[in-house]
Specification:
Layout: H1 2-7, H2 16-43, H3 45-56, H4 60-88, H5 90-107, H6 114-128, H7 131-142, H8 145-156, H9 158-173, H10 183-190, H11 193-205, H12 218-238, H13 243-247, H14 250-279, H15 284-309, H16 317-333, H17 339-360, H18 370-402, H19 406-438
Helix pairs in contact: 2-5, 2-8, 2-9, 2-11, 3-10, 3-14, 4-5, 4-6, 4-7, 4-18, 5-6, 5-7, 5-11, 7-18, 8-15, 8-17, 9-15, 14-15, 14-17, 14-18, 14-19, 15-17, 16-17, 16-19, 18-19
Domain Major facilitator superfamily (MFS) profile: 27-431
InterPro entries: MFS, MFS_dom, MFS_trans_sf
Membrane topology: Multi-pass membrane protein
Length: 441
């Protein structure tokens, strides 16, 4: 009896701040690296386009359509993928996703025309579907609400870091030739290999649930499981919701529409940024280095804004302000008289767009749990990712019609502002609903 009591420390003896740090050190570095690789495989086609478009006969419009087809495949497979992950576990399913997208991304290097390019991008979207919402769901299994936005923002640092690291690497790889392959082909192949390797490593690194974590002490497991269970029970009592209800809930649908606007800005600008910078008169060899600068600023903004949002208050105000800042930056980039000031304005835009990503996901996690969370989060991501199709296509068509990037950037800035206004309206309605529940008639 005495021995059993000694093996399990009392729950009050666990320092929860140290526990959260321990979890972050164990879980987030690996997921962060996976997201860096994921984002590289998603957007490196923007650098490949510097030589690929002429090589396989892509116009600005056909590149925009082909690049955007990734997100159509992503949209179709997102919700089923998240529901399957709930059944088979995060470890196995995330590993499958990574291996699949790595193989498809490498195969894209061998396309020979617009149709093959579009098919490859669509298949890449199908293969990668479920990774990001799956990780969001996985983080909700581990991190209490008090630290979830911080954990999410650290994971999502993969976006700017992928661009900071990947931009100069991609810019260099696209210059090389050898073994019968040209630079854009080497770029796609070499940046796809880490996904396959990490997919295999995932099987040995991730733990599906806190209850199974042998790297936590019994007392730490007890405290964490109890905290998460209490939060889940409180949310289900306040917002009881089935999967079917979540998929037609007005908050979920509004958040999906907001995310659609945000991703038009994020991926529309991200996929075209190398060509925007090249149009400023810079050589291809330095485009990659310059393209990394906005994402350095975005990385700092993401961490700072994620920490600020965890201090409490209305969760909706933070992503709304972020989208508004993105709109200001894109608008300013069309008005600047010099290339240097244009880069500064693009830095402001990326700071806004990236800090939105760090704070947005704290909003749905405040009212979704269980299968409702799996389906609702996947729906928000999948509808939002249709913006990944619309954004590149919109910019491509408007650039072809107008002859430059001014009109498309103004249009995307307006869409970001619309997203900010919708988020403010959502926050206002949530506050009204909360008051109505607290003070019944």
């Amino acid at each position: 009896m005495a021995q059993g009591q000694q093996s399990r420390a009392p729950a009050h003896a666990v320092d929860e701040r140290n526990l959260h740090r321990k979890m972050m050190r164990r879980i987030l570095p690996f997921l962060f690296v996976c997201y860096v690789v994921s984002y590289l495989d998603r957007v490196n086609v923007g650098f490949a386009a510097l030589t690929m478009n002429a090589h396989i006969g892509l116009t600005a419009t056909s590149f925009g359509i082909g690049a955007g087809l990734f997100f159509l495949g992503y949209f179709l497979a997102e919700i089923p993928s998240n529901l399957i992950m709930m059944r088979v576990g995060a470890r196995l399913w995330i590993a499958r996703i990574m291996i699949t997208w790595g193989l498809v991304s490498a195969a894209t290097a061998f396309v020979t025309g617009p149709i093959q390019f579009g098919i490859a991008r669509f298949l890449l979207g199908l293969g990668e579907a479920g990774f990001v919402p799956g990780v969001f769901l996985y983080l909700s299994f581990w991190f209490p609400s008090a630290v979830r936005a911080r954990a999410t923002s650290l994971f999502l640092l993969g976006i700017p870091v992928a661009n900071i690291v990947g931009s100069p690497i991609s810019g260099a790889l696209v210059q090389i030739e050898g073994f019968g392959l040209v630079g854009w082909q080497w770029l796609l192949i070499l940046e796809a290999l880490p996904a396959v390797i990490l997919g295999i490593v995932c099987l040995f690194v991730l733990t599906d649930r806190p209850e199974k974590a042998q790297w936590l002490t019994p007392a730490e497991r007890d405290v964490l499981v109890a905290t998460l269970a209490a939060e889940k029970a409180a949310i289900e009592k306040k917002h009881p919701m089935t999967l079917a209800q979540a998929l037609r809930n007005w908050r979920v649908l509004t958040l999906a529409a907001i995310n659609f606007c945000a991703i038009i800005g994020s991926l529309g600008v991200g996929l075209w940024l190398p060509q925007m910078i090249k149009q400023l008169g810079l050589a291809s060899s330095v485009v990659g280095v310059v393209a990394a600068i906005p994402y350095v600023c975005g990385a700092v903004a993401m961490v700072v804004w994620g920490r600020v949002s965890d201090r409490g208050g209305d969760r909706t105000i933070y992503p709304a302000l972020s989208l508004a800042l993105g709109a200001v930056g894109l608008t300013a980039s069309t008005l600047t008289p010099t290339p240097g000031l244009t880069i500064v304005a693009l830095c402001v835009a990326v700071m806004g767009i990236n800090s939105y990503t760090a704070t947005f996901w704290a909003v749905p996690s405040g009212f979704l749990t269980g299968r409702a969370a799996a389906g609702g989060i996947a729906m928000i991501v999948s509808i939002g990712n249709l913006g990944g199709f619309a954004g590149p296509y919109l910019i491509g068509v408007m650039r072809e019609l107008s002859g430059g990037f001014t009109a498309p950037l103004l249009a995307v800035g307006g869409i970001l502002l619309l997203g900010a206004l919708m988020m403010l309206a959502l926050g206002r309605q949530i506050r009204r609903d909360t008051i109505a529940v607290a003070v019944p008639a």
